[in-house]
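Teaching assistant here, posting this on the class forum so everyone can see the example we discussed in section. The complex has two components, and the goal was to see what a joint structure prediction looks like when all of them are supplied at once.
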Amino acid sequence: ISCYLSRSANTQFSVRRSARDITNMSQQAANGLPCRGKVLNLDNMNPNVRRVEYAVRGAIVQRALQIDKELKEGVKKPFTEVIKANIGDAHAMGQKPITFLRQVLALCAYPDLLDDNKFPDDSKQRARRILEACGGHSIGAYSSSQGIECIRQDVARYIEKRDDGISSDPDNIYLATGASDAIVTMLKLLVCGKGRDRTGVMISIPQYPLYSAALADLAAVQINYYLDEDKCWSLDIAELKRAVTAARQHCNPRVICIINPGNPTGQVQSRQCIEDVIRFAKEEHLFLMADEVYQDNVYAEGCKFHSFKRVLFEMGPEYSTTVEMASFHSTSKCYMGECGFRGGYMEVINMDPEVKAQLTKLVSVRLCPPVPGQALLDLVVNPPQPDEPSYDKFMKERTAVLAALAEKAGLTEQIFNTVPGITCNPVQGAMYTFPRITLPQKAIDKAKAEGQVPDMFYCMKLLEEEGICLVPGSGFGQREGTFHFRMTILPPTEKLKFVLQKISDFHIRFTQEFS
Amino acid sequence: ISCYLSRSANTQFSVRRSARDITNMSQQAANGLPCRGKVLNLDNMNPNVRRVEYAVRGAIVQRALQIDKELKEGVKKPFTEVIKANIGDAHAMGQKPITFLRQVLALCAYPDLLDDNKFPDDSKQRARRILEACGGHSIGAYSSSQGIECIRQDVARYIEKRDDGISSDPDNIYLATGASDAIVTMLKLLVCGKGRDRTGVMISIPQYPLYSAALADLAAVQINYYLDEDKCWSLDIAELKRAVTAARQHCNPRVICIINPGNPTGQVQSRQCIEDVIRFAKEEHLFLMADEVYQDNVYAEGCKFHSFKRVLFEMGPEYSTTVEMASFHSTSKCYMGECGFRGGYMEVINMDPEVKAQLTKLVSVRLCPPVPGQALLDLVVNPPQPDEPSYDKFMKERTAVLAALAEKAGLTEQIFNTVPGITCNPVQGAMYTFPRITLPQKAIDKAKAEGQVPDMFYCMKLLEEEGICLVPGSGFGQREGTFHFRMTILPPTEKLKFVLQKISDFHIRFTQEFS
């Protein structure tokens, strides 16, 4: 058959033309239509996009949503609801919004309420200030692409306070559609070169799969460095050296990404470790990306959040004037958990001014980050002060959320570690546990026979039998031959206990079944 | 000097190393530091990003912001404010938000207000419905990546009603962070191949520069087809044929993008023209992207918005079952003008189910579109009905906005066409005029001598002398030797008259000065 598609017979994709296409074409030919497949199909779409994977919302979550629907349609299951412990989605887990934040947002959305005496004065004052900074005094106007100037000023002051006075320049702050947006934008700027000169980006294993997904999309080279599970997921400089040295054989390593507190691993890095990483970045001439979205989520005794910016500046001008860095923060985590607003920012340090101009140009193409998210961020970095009417309630709500998280972090570690075959590092920070699970050889064999990775097989079985949705460790990366899952500690305490018990029972049952 | 940077001496960028780098390196060497430039500089950053241009927020807007600051600092100018007529930012131009939309958004942000009898019942009912569809009944929870299901259902029903019953499947609707986000995502899916097999994308000239920016970022091939200024910016199929035929010599044309009503050109396409485009897309085996964000902004007598979807289905199954298409809509334009919320959607038609699964995966990496923007979209597609308490006020506000825009569209054409050297097509729809300006040869020569494109020179002079910010036609593309600018018609009527007069006077003065 003479066929339009043969035009592209010399493309890199044509060899992969599938039986499906041929069927498509034959059907069309039978209908008397020109013999052509879809303009856009799996074989001729962007190959980088095909390589993207994002486990946190992957196959297991698709199945969880299906089961949810089946339950609603009255299908009988051994459980009455699906508990989605796969993602750090605080409000979905029942955490209540912080009153002050939502009052100001309502005032910004509908300024007629500024006359309402139900709202405290400080919430009105904050709303007025935000509205005055908006075009036409409306959050419905575009903002400047870098974000509203007075909010960037507030962010800079917040960072200065956090870092005991180390100065922050509002011009170095870029507001974003959540931290994810800023991270992808920064990676995009950094990627160039072909073949052996292609940009390599160092990421931890286990990692948060936004990184691997963005690198696949950008066709950058992913350089894995492994965290040390036996030392509470700590970061070892010798391992960084090993990884970068090996990578220099086949790519151009230019970036190191660190997540602190860790996702999915929950560790909080020591000041010493951060210093070592900064020294390493300087020695190896790497751009440092510090994902610090869990900076307020630190629970463990003796642990403290140290910002990369602060350590960098405390190391003196040899470092503070040379090491190029971006730090990321978000409104989705910490005590507020406002994921749906997609608020966040990055601070860039020592960035070449010409590159900064390019960054500003790049973000302008998408016009601006969502203004409600910008407004929310402003409240997070500029919360009620002790002399203001909303202070007491705000502090009470904030403290309650963080105290509950700390309790749940302890509980999780404690219960999992009583189960033979589950070992769990302390959840020092962030919102997840990443316990190691021992799987019987028979289960591993069964999974492989079914074409599944063993921890996916385990998690799917847990989902089908108990209605609990976790993410398999393979979605984050793990050392060959080890298996894990990620679970958020966000469910309310009683529900979390229930979930932990259900998983424990399942694990014992699973082990017996495959022994 | 032996230098770290020489490692990458064989990259494609090293040849462009600039004097600046050398200076950087020498300075560092003098300080006793290792001789290395920035990790990230203009020469080794992503070359695609460097090629991106976005005139709507380009150099002229940067200068406008500076002038704004100078005015605030008390610098004397021949004007007291900068009027930013460069962008379709309705609220910034003084348009008031629609009450109903903002009431519901306030209720969603702060559900305590659901007890407040100040809010009409239908606004409460809408807010409750949205909240019930959110995780934990909070707009602070992540939504599904494709967008909240009941909102996608509402969008589908809205499309069905718009298209007189042609069915729409909620599974084909993807909510997005403004239409821009959806357009970029769709283009990203479509781009593949190398060299002569690289994906080519047909865009109109003049175009909205989001398209050229996204194509530069994706390193796709931009294929220009010219609109016919002499025929009110209409689209000529012969011109499409010319463009695609020429392009096949050097790339693989796979996509055609259409903006209707037009941006920046304000034309509204006839039903016949849309049919011709669909036939062309089918014949040439192109994916059709229909940017229809101005679908409610149609002003001219005898003009009507015809959706590509509807025309496609009215052409019968030969077309409706084969032509692959995506249509885009937004909450930023029409009567609501809520740009800051970044709401929008796309509907995909005849998309390969496997590609759809890839699309769903791709959007999941960014978690979800901002939920306040999704909520807003729900209200736009599901506005108050005649039997509901908010209906009268809603309709009054909506009609007033659209009537004022229609008046301003007429006014703009009329006033500009009285000025010798300015010719202006009717503003049939959208929010812009794109008049042609005749520039004296002396002005063209002067601009070239100063290294500026002539219409940038003109617009910069207008900005400095009158405080009016327009975008030069070169930012959108125009036929060689012609010059234009884009101006939004959004300023309030009296201010618009003032602006039109100022530009007219300036044009006459400019022409005299350079004659």
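For the discussion questions: The first helix of chain A runs from residue 19 to 30. Chain A touches chain B through 109 residues (CB under 8 Å). Think about how each of these relates to the inputs above.
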